[in-house]
TrEMBL record:
Sample GO molecular function, one term: transmembrane transporter activity
InterPro entries the UniProt entry points to: MFS, MFS_dom, MFS_Exporter, MFS_trans_sf
Record's protein name: MFS transporter
Annotated keywords: Membrane, Transmembrane, Transmembrane helix
GO cellular component terms attached to this protein's record: plasma membrane
Annotated TM spans: 12-30, 42-62, 74-93, 99-122, 134-154, 166-187, 213-237, 243-266, 278-295, 364-383
Cell compartments where the protein resides: Cell membrane
Main subcellular location of this protein, as a coarse class: membrane
Amino acid sequence: MSGAPGSRWPWIIVHAVLIQVLTYAVRPGLSFAVLEAGGQEAVIGLLATSFALPALLLALPAGRLTDGRGERTIAVLGSVLLVAAIGIALVSLQSVAGLMVAALVLGVGHLLSIISEQTAVANRSKVGSRESAFGLYTLAASIGQTLGPLLLAIPNPAGPGPNLQLVFWCAMGAAVLLGVASLFLGSGSRGDSTAKRPGSFTSSRKILREPGAFRAVVAGGIAIASVDVTLAFWPALSTQPGVSAALVSLMLTSRALATLASRAALPSLSRRLSRRMLLLISLGAAAVTLALTGLPIGPIWLVVAAVLYGFAIGVTQPITMAWLTDVAPEDQRGLALSLRLVGNRLAQSLIPAGAGLLTPLTGGGGVLVAIGASLAAAATVAYTQKKRE
């Protein structure tokens, strides 16, 4: 591994902030663009699937390539794809098909960027301190998630929605800066050692047989899919009386701030509660509060529910990252984290698409209630997870 153990941390943090800023601005921006281009609410579910499904096929190979070639190479490639995705969105504001393509390319670029930076964190942390390391990393990500939705509050002089051209141009600037940060990310490359290791699927099966690993992947996948649903379907609430685009932006920003707070508190929480108990409590609370955002409870209570949901859901990602990193061999950490991303992307592909099919029957609010029920199922999975003390 190049450099001193902590020498690349500032660049990892910058990278984590930038990728979330552009993602949390562009993805809801694409939902607004689809609606403005004449797409129906059901199409938003397909937009989320366009972001998640292609990358599902690439996650394991990308994780294995990261282990062999190093984080820097994969990060640079990811940033190039993100620039391309935003460029496609800018020239496709009136084309639903073009916006779908933009979401697809965005998903691949996002996947490569996330795998590279998570592997960098894993390679620069030690057993026993990984909750704190991934907590710091996800705290940085939360800062980006807080800043990104603020761009959606930029007024559009031509209509009631956000100024999408300006949003996408700001995101383009973030993507260019991300490419610069990628050059300084460092590399844990082991040359051609990937040729000497078992295949991706053989190694993945071995990792999943470790205590609690499979359940952590399942619970984490449902949790991250629920966040995706808020990005896709909270904008759709703006079609309801009393819910403006500015209120949706406030909900997204409040959720991100609450998630930031919960990750800052994670080191203290992890000293008092086991991973299993933290997952159970956080997922159960998130189930209730997300379902509330789908009910006609008024603007103030929508923001309160978004805050409580954000705090509850915030601890699931660092816990599952630390869990899988601990059970993986040292030279397969990228693969282990990409395996987690496969679970995430599978959930991100199936759950929003299924949610989109529900919209003609239940509307966007009913979808949010249904996803809240899926989080309750994830809490049950966490409860049955064996302790790994």
